[in-house]
Amino acid sequence: MYVAVKGGERAIENAHAFLADERRGDRSVADLSVAQIREQLALAVNRVMAEGSLYDPDLAALAIKQARGDLIEAIFLIRAYRTTLPRFGATEPVDTGAMDCIRRISATFKDAPGGQVLGPTFDYTHRLLDFKLMAERDTPPAPDAEPQAEAMPHIMEFLNKDGLIEAEAHSNSQPSDLTRVPLELPASRALRLQSLARGDEGFLLGLAYSTQRGYARNHAFVGELRIGTCSIAMEVPELGFSVEIGEVTLTECETVNQFKGSKTEPAQFTRGYGLVFGQTERKAISMALVDRALRWRELGEEDAGAPTQDEEFVLSHCDNIQATGFLEHIKLPHYVDFQSELELVRRLRAGASAARSEALE
Questions:
Q1: Which residues contact 216 (CB under 8 A, 6 or more apart)?
Q2: Model pTM greater than 0.90?
Q3: Tens-digit pLDDT profile for residues 90-110
Q4: Tell me: the pLDDT tens digits for 238-260?
Q5: E strand spans, 175-331
Q6: What are the residue ranges spanned by the domains of the chain?
Q7: Which element (helix H / strand E) includes 343?
Q8: Are 117 and 101 in contact (CB under 8 A)?
Q9: By three-state DSSP, how is residue 8 classified?
Q10: DSSP code, position 249
Q11: Which of 28, 30, 105, 328 makes a 20 to 30 Å CA pair with 231?
Q12: How far is 102 from 149, CA to CA, in rounded Å?
């Protein structure tokens, strides 16, 4: 806490009280409940959970309310709370192939087993304000949208069967946990994906867009985008087997990218991958594009010098909490630092003025 000036603590307490009053807003308007935020601002809740690395819709909604809708501040609150939680163990790897999908599309194959499931999407809506939403009345309930019961195998497997896409590498080694171990470079792909999964959506979107425009030459196809719920299982040592402890909603994206081949590999497609909490498809697609751009070295491609190919640049700057902390600290008191800089500039100006005076004599 900065208390460099007299009355600093009292000023901070008053600022907190003012913030609480502004958060509540006009008392003639009904107070916004956490349940309303959770149910009606679900996409904002999903982003907070994804970038906060904590799957809890209620807490994410609470953080959004506390932060007055500032999602990065809400993410900060969730991460801070997350550090206080005990850790009981790790769950089993999630089988996204068994996902109960509410949305599943492919831009590469029209007639995929299981079909194209549009689900809840803005893709086909007109971007016009719907003034009916301003009416203060409940809308009639929509028909129940049940997840697809038909099995939906991963579409990329059809390319894999013909050897047209690189085989996905699997490892039995335990990846590092970015939430407990500091990021080290060069990073493994598993560590990169962790960093991208909790990275800032806007930053990753900008990087992904740059790859499509030619910076890294990475214009991909969406092989598959699926959204749905997956069961979470955890092995209980006392029982000796795994039990389901719940389920989470996930968005998974796999992209298909061209690859001209190398001295050892024939021409084939390569993969980009994104997996994020909740319905966060823009983030998942961006993540997959950036993931593929960062793989240029392992695929034997040339370095195009694009920012998205620079692992240190991407991973060191994609975290919005780190970025916010470093950015916003400069608005806090730096009186001593500035006075030293001010004194230095005055000495330099005085020296330059004296030199000019001597030159004129």
A1: 210, 293, 296, 304, 306, 308, 309
A2: no
A3: 888 899 989 999 999 999 888
A4: 888 889 999 999 999 999 987 76
A5: 221-236, 241-259, 268-277
A6: 8-82, 96-122+147-168+175-318
A7: helix 335-360
A8: yes
A9: helix
A10: E
A11: 105
A12: 10
